[in-house]
Design goal:
155 residues, alpha+beta, 2 helices
Length: 155
């Protein structure tokens, strides 16, 4: 009899208990849902990336420019800065050879997505190979540059 009462009380308690709640989403699940949209800038925004060393960083500006910057010829442009051993900037236009600027008057660098060594970055008419030896970029017509701690070459 005593066991029957205990079993009956157990069923009554279970019937009065609220249903188990769904587990709350983890912060990682929320981040994963938001990250792709945040990582895809609008077509009229610049995009930046850097080498893993943090010594070389580049900014891509699409054809037509952005709200705050228009390229000199209205076409796409890639600007890369090297910090050490001396500050150097290289500007590569969609349709011309790269230009080296030894003293740009600005010396900000580097931000954006870190591209792993052995990877290729590509946007618009530009491709860049990122290796431990440096960053080598080219436009669609074959002009480009190589930038490293020991080398600055524009072509």
């Amino acid at each position: 009899m005593r066991n029957a009462i205990l079993i009956a009380l157990t069923f009554v308690c279970m019937a009065c208990s609220p249903p188990a709640a769904e587990p709350a989403p983890t912060p990682q699940a929320e981040v994963a849902a938001v990250t792709p949209a945040a990582a895809s800038p609008a077509p009229d925004q610049s995009r930046s990336f850097m080498a893993p060393s943090g010594n070389i960083g580049c900014v891509f500006t699409p054809a037509g420019g952005t709200e705050i910057y228009e390229t000199p010829d209205g076409r796409a442009e890639l600007i890369c800065d090297r910090v050490e051993p001396t500050y150097v900037r290289i500007i590569l236009s969609e349709q011309s050879a790269a230009r080296v600027i030894e003293d740009s008057g600005e010396q900000g660098c580097c931000s954006g997505e870190t591209i792993a060594y052995g990877s290729r970055w590509a946007e618009g008419p530009f491709t860049c190979d990122i290796t431990e030896a440096g960053v080598a970029c080219a436009n669609a017509i074959g002009n480009g540059f190589t930038l490293s701690r020991t080398r600055v070459e524009a072509r």
